[in-house]
Task: inverse folding
């Protein structure tokens, strides 16, 4: 067992010896005279009984779970665990040493009450140690008792399922109030003491609330980058309490704690503006003012100084520091020339000098504390709203085009074959004396003859005398003129219909194109806010500065799944090659995530470096195609790429074989891969490909699409199919077949993907095939995937394609393409 794990068992042995060993030993020792047991056996029996009882006691009290959680955490990472323990001990110690109103110490109680289970033993130990040291609170035993009472109250709340934000403040205030009331009653119930007790109870409850909000950042400091305003206030007040403990460390009235407080105000004002500077100054002045009897008037100038320094922040560090010094000098001028005012001015000047001497790297990292993530997201609301408005406008235009087409079709519903005969009779029969008889008296016989002519017109496009019934040809004296007029009117009728069909088709395609563009704009608008959150760029610039690069533009983002990406632009690239591993390591430390990269590209005169959070898995591809016999081109197209932690496999089979099929397949793969890499969704990309294939030529043109999108962070796979054959995979050593029915793209105006979700793990396989490899019985394919033992994926894809060609039993030949991938632990 590791040494650090024995620490916990040593603590538990102390519990045994203190509470149970000696009483149990005495009882068993009495029984020894009657049983005749040896001393060794007696000792083992006593220890076993004591261990069992003490374990029950610790389990009931919750201390065993707390200590066990700590020990398990230490076993995972000893250096990190020791650092965490030291930080918690220091936080508890400093909180208990922060005194207000002379000799009151409510912050130690608040720190113990707000502590999480993993940190509680160390914070409690630090708080007790700080309480019993000299120059601490007036009644150390009272504060230790209050810490114990607060723990009991929290355990009771936990037993009742209490997790509300008010439980910690209520427990801390109750513990402080009860113990304080006991001291006040013992001292004779003085009014001044009662007022101080009440004020201490309020301070204890409020500080417990802020400590609980700031506690997560003690265990995970990387969360400090990009704080929200309410979290920043909690961290700032907690920091002020720690500085309060340093305030008594003074030389000739000059306090180390107040110098650190002024330095924090200057950093907040420089990078957070007037608002952050005023908030930091007011918080520092209020909290530090509680620690001295005559300090409140002097420290009240901190808030005013922070406000003025924030206004002058655009002038740089020197302008910010000078404004703060002058503002505090003006505030102290009205208070005369007391020694405390002089010491305050010296502290402000000392903090300003330190502020000017701090390295840029440290200031860049600290500046991220005062730029809230929610404000960065809200700055994109204007762009998002404009994109969404433009998207809706385009959709409205598409709907208007569709409605106009429907209205025009309704208005022209009378343009039928009957209209052809009516127009022909107006042209040929308007001077005939038999017109009234033919089109009125003998209307039924005439229409019967026209129906016969209509059959001939639809069959051959023209009507002749042979197509006219005898009962009509014997009566009509202008049959030749009538047939000529009917043929001419029918030709105009067919031309009008062809033009209308073409216009309607173009109108529908135009409407679909507007809808596709609207979908693109809508997805861009959604991604502007919901799909990424910008974090402070200062840590990125600091990491680049460490490696000798000046990043003029830097961006650090979290996508919708919490994965980080970093992009930086440098105008001057160093002549000597940089250590990319060192740069990635520096960025990983600055951003709190393991990053991969960089990917280097040129944009004008700037060099763009892109990093991405390291994924859990990596993927290996293999592709192989076999052309149909006698063809120069393969009618299949396949492509695979990785983008932003996602691997995408694409396979398309064009209609037929040869050149035309190759054009359709490559067009589909190339277009959809470009759209996906640009950040658009699968549905919008599919609609764009469908429109492109329908507009490509007058001939029928379509292609299948088979897509597999693999999330390399979680192993989740999304399958999208448009007329594609089954997908084959191997999970946990077993081969599976996934069948989804859908239509190819390029056939119908409105088309969609068949979609399914699966999950893969280490050493799992994913195989996409074209129609030529999935004909007939696929038992051989399932067996080959199951029996694959490793090696090159390109060789594996080639073997599968050759086996597919040998196993074709339908007497036909076709293009064969196999795209295979294997998922591996990164």
Result:
């Amino acid at each position: 067992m590791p040494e650090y794990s024995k620490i916990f068992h040593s603590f538990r042995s102390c519990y045994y010896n203190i509470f149970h060993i000696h009483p149990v030993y005495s009882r068993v020792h009495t029984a020894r005279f009657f049983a005749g047991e040896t001393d060794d056996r007696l000792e083992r029996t006593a220890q076993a009984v004591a261990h069992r009882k003490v374990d029950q006691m610790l389990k009931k009290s919750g201390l065993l779970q707390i200590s066990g959680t700590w020990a398990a955490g230490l076993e995972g990472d000893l250096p990190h665990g020791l650092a965490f323990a030291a930080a918690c001990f220091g936080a508890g110690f400093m909180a208990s040493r922060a005194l207000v109103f002379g000799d009151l110490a409510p912050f130690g109680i608040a720190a113990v009450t707000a502590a999480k289970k993993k940190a509680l033993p160390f914070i409690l130990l630090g708080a007790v140690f700080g309480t019993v040291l000299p120059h601490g609170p007036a009644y150390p035993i009272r504060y230790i008792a209050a810490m114990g009472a607060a723990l009991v109250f929290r355990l009771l709340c936990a037993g009742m399922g209490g997790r509300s934000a008010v439980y910690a403040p209520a427990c801390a205030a109750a513990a402080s109030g009860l113990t304080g009331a006991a001291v006040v009653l013992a001292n004779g119930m003085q009014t001044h003491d009662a007022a101080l007790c009440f004020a201490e109870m309020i301070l204890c409850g409020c500080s417990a609330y802020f400590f609980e909000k700031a506690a997560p950042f003690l265990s995970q400091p990387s969360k400090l980058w990009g704080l929200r305003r309410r979290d920043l206030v909690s961290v700032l007040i907690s920091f002020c309490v720690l500085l309060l403990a340093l305030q008594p460390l003074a030389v000739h009235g000059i306090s180390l704690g107040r110098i650190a407080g002024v330095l924090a105000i200057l950093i907040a004002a420089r990078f957070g503006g007037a608002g952050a500077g005023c908030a930091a100054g007011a918080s520092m002045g209020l909290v530090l003012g509680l620690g001295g009897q005559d300090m409140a008037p002097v420290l009240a100038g901190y808030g005013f100084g922070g406000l003025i320094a924030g206004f002058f922040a655009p002038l740089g560090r020197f302008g910010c520091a000078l404004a703060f010094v002058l503002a505090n000098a003006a505030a102290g001028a009205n208070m005369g020339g007391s020694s405390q005012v002089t010491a305050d001015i010296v502290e402000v000047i000392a903090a300003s000098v330190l502020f000017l001497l701090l390295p840029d790297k440290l200031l860049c990292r600290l500046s991220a504390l005062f730029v809230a993530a929610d404000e960065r997201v809200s700055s994109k609301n204007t762009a998002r709203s404009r994109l969404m408005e433009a998207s809706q406008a385009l959709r409205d235009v598409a709907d208007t085009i569709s409605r106009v087409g429907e209205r025009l079709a309704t208005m022209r519903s009378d343009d039928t074959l009957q209209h052809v005969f009516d127009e022909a009779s107006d042209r040929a029969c308007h001077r005939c004396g038999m017109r009234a008889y033919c089109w009125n008296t003998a209307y039924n016989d005439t229409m019967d003859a026209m129906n016969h002519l209509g059959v001939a017109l639809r069959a051959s496009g023209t009507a002749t005398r042979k197509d006219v019934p005898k009962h009509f040809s014997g009566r009509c004296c202008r049959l030749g003129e009538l047939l000529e007029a009917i043929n001419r009117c029918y030709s105009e009728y067919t031309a009008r219909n062809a033009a209308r069909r073409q216009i309607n088709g173009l109108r529908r395609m135009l409407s679909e194109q507007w809808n596709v563009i609207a979908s693109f704009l809508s997805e861009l608008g959604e991604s502007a806010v919901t799909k990424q959150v910008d974090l402070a760029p200062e840590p990125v610039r600091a990491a680049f500065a460490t490696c000798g690069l000046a990043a003029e533009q830097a961006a650090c983002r979290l996508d919708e799944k919490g994965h980080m990406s970093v992009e930086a632009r440098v105008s001057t690239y160093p002549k000597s090659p940089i250590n990319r591993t060192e740069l990635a390591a520096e960025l990983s430390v600055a951003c709190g995530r393991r990053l991969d990269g960089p990917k280097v590209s040129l944009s004008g005169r700037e060099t763009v470096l892109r990093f991405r959070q390291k994924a859990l898995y990596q993927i290996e591809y293999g592709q192989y195609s076999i052309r149909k016999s006698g063809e120069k081109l393969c009618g299949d197209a396949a492509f695979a790429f990785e983008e932003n932690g996602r691997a995408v496999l694409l396979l398309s089979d064009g209609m037929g074989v040869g050149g035309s099929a190759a054009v359709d397949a490559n067009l589909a793969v190339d277009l959809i891969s470009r759209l996906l890499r640009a950040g658009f969704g699968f549905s919008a990309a599919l609609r764009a490909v469908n429109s492109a294939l329908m507009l490509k030529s007058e001939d029928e043109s379509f292609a299948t699409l088979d897509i597999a999108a693999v999330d390399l962070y979680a192993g989740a796979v999304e399958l999208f199919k448009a007329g594609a054959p089954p997908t084959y995979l191997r999970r946990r050593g077993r081969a599976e077949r996934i069948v989804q029915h859908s239509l190819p793209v390029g056939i119908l105006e409105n088309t969609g993907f068949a979609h399914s979700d699966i999950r893969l793990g280490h050493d799992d396989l994913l195989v996409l095939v074209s129609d030529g490899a999935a004909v007939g019985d696929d038992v051989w394919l399932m067996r080959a995937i199951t029996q694959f033992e490793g090696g090159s994926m390109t060789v594996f894809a080639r073997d599968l394609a050759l086996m597919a060609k040998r196993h074709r039993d339908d007497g036909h030949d076709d293009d064969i393409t196999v795209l295979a991938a294997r998922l591996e632990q990164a």
In short: The radius of gyration is 41 Å.
